[in-house]
Specification:
heterodimer, A: 317 residues, mainly alpha, Ammonium transporter fold, two-stranded antiparallel ribbon, globular, B: 445 residues, alpha/beta, Rossmann fold, 6-stranded mixed sheet, 29% helix, binds iron/sulfur cluster
Amino acid sequence: MDKLIISPAPHIHGGDSIEKNMRGVIIALIPALLVGFYFFGLGALIVTLVSVISCVLFEYLIQRFLLKTEPTITDGSAVITGLLLAMNLPSNIPFWMVILGALFAIGVAKMSFGGLGNNPFNPALAGRVFLLISFPVAMTSWPVPSPLTTSYLDAQTGATALSILQGSDLDIPAITDLLIGKMGGSLGEISAIAILIGFIYLLVKKIISWHIPISILVTVALFTGILHGSNPAAFASPMFHLLTGGLLLGAVFMATDYATSPMNPRGMIIYGIGIGIITVVIREFGAYPEGVSFAILIMNAFTPLINKYVKPRRFSK
Amino acid sequence: MKTFRIGGIHPEENKLSAGQRIKTITLPERVVIPLAHYSGRPSNAVVKRGDQVKVGQLIGKADGYVSANVHSSVSGKVAKVDVQLDASGYKRPAVFIDVEGDEWLETIDLTPDIERKCHFSKEEILTKIQSAGIVGLGGATFPAHVKLSPPPGKKAEVLIINAVECEPYLTCDHQLMMEKGEEILVGVTILMKVLEVKKAVIGIENNKKDAVEHLSKIAQSYPGISVEPLKVRYPQGGEKQLIDAILKRQVPSGKIPIEVGAVVMNVATTFAVYEAVQKEKPLIERVMTISGKDVKKPGNYLVRLGVYLSEVVKQTGGVPKGTGKIIGGGPMMGRSLMNLDVPMAKGSAGIVFVNEKEALRKKDKNCIRCAKCVTVCPMGLEPYLLMNQSEREMWIEMERNRVMDCIECGSCSYTCPSNRPLLDYIRYGKSTVGLRIRKRQTEKV
Ligand code: SF4
Ligand code: SF4
């Protein structure tokens, strides 16, 4: 007892850390990743590895040589950006495009704003949209699922369920295929069940709350339900909308990104409803078959405003 | 099971001294009795050097209404009246007494018999409580007679007894309930008489099942008094949280419990009221917990006011090896002590030893905007925002974001995964905003 530490209360800490939260998200992503690896084989693996490695490397290099600050790559957030970016890409995309996407995600969307916690837009989504605008063809030719295939760039491509909806008269896949993920699409978005397992894990570990994902899903279900009810021939069923495209992946993993989503339950619900509405509008009335990424990025832009005006439920109003 | 409705955390309970019978600390050669309490004005010394005093004799007279009398906790000779560094970290007036024997005032009833019937009128009881120097023993040390006299036009409906003891480690209230259950219930009836209420609820967190059972059984013969087991959740011992948990009423911002018809009294205070009214015994001692993960025999001790904490620690096994921090009070809201040479005061509920490893704060990192601090705040505030605004000295915005509502429970700092010193900054902002508000009010008058 030579020296006593004097500091203000509280004198204990719960032991939560950035690393713990990030590790939790990575664990929650594993089921969806595994399904991706299974249905898209080698290509999925290559794209994922390239994406993760480039994200981590870019973050390290930028912090070390450009910003000259202590690299924070061990916190796991760059790994998550890498994983999420990969999961939003088709598995047959050339790897140099992946590297470009990673550079945009980390360099532009994250580090130029001050790194973790300060970025206004979800880095992985920013990377994805950057690629979508730059390389629209590569970004929208989806390999058909073929278990444990070893093909990568030469993978056979086909339509996604959503693009079928947009006009072509191919058969709509069965609901069971949609649930397990036997359909074309980005490599991490296909299996509803895998993503829901991740969702439950995140909830149990209290890494995210239910507000954002549930309000998105409920909004999409209601909105598409009304449309479908009014004209079943022109509009697909809510079930179909919920299980296809990146909706679940986006709702559970992208829209809940800490830095870019609102800071209290009320704000989160408003934000989720916004994402739901914009998604359906783009899907049903827009030029793109898929609208989740854009919807989330648009609502990211509203997050500061929501935080400013939507306050948490105060004690005694 | 009931609990409060907004925020809250569940820190490791570490009630290591639970079930340890209350032991009495032997009297040292000298005591230093503080005349000042953490809240309220210090009392004025009415003894001087050379005076002989007995246990229970008045030595400090309350200075005004929001102040409390102080009595000698020992018999002996006054050595001096001087300033003394106390647990709050300030030097404040105190009476130094050299102990001689243990001679009590004759008026004090020292028999162990329980006096169940209270023959006094409301006014007589209030006077007794006031002259016995009773203050809230839960930590805030606010004079009890003030709390028991609702402002004109306000009427209490329910008396709530705070037996939550939600701070980790502390068990003194728990043990007191186990050993003095009947006395506490008599104390409750006395308080009910003062407040003219027909209903009292004793709120106990459910990690003290034995106390819930014990008091429920005794309460059967006391009409109007019930025991409410509460779901374990910090900071349930906060007045506003406890009222919300039990009555589902939320005390408005900036108001006191009487606004929703409630008066809250700590359970140890209730016991002190019993002793003051039924036994004529002023507040001269209290139970405290000595605990910590490396403490060999954590326990609950009856300590006279003014005994140096170093003396208490010496008699209870000494300072454990590797201690990095000593907390006066609980780990969530207590103060870290500079040393143990401070006197036992009315608000001292415990000493907790923390080892070097746990005592060190981790380096803080960027706010990752995870919103966890918002989720846990029991007042529905945005700690991350208040800290930012405090750093930038944005006092007007802080006031608008209701910084004055902060109860300084520490749940936000406890939770933050980036180890941000949220409460440090919020406290700074709160005191500055508080000063600004007071200045504004005086200018208006
Ligand atoms: S210390 Fe204040 S701001 Fe932090 S959780 Fe408690 S009441 Fe909320
Ligand atoms: S808990 Fe910490 S990291 Fe999370 S929002 Fe609050 S201050 Fe930021």
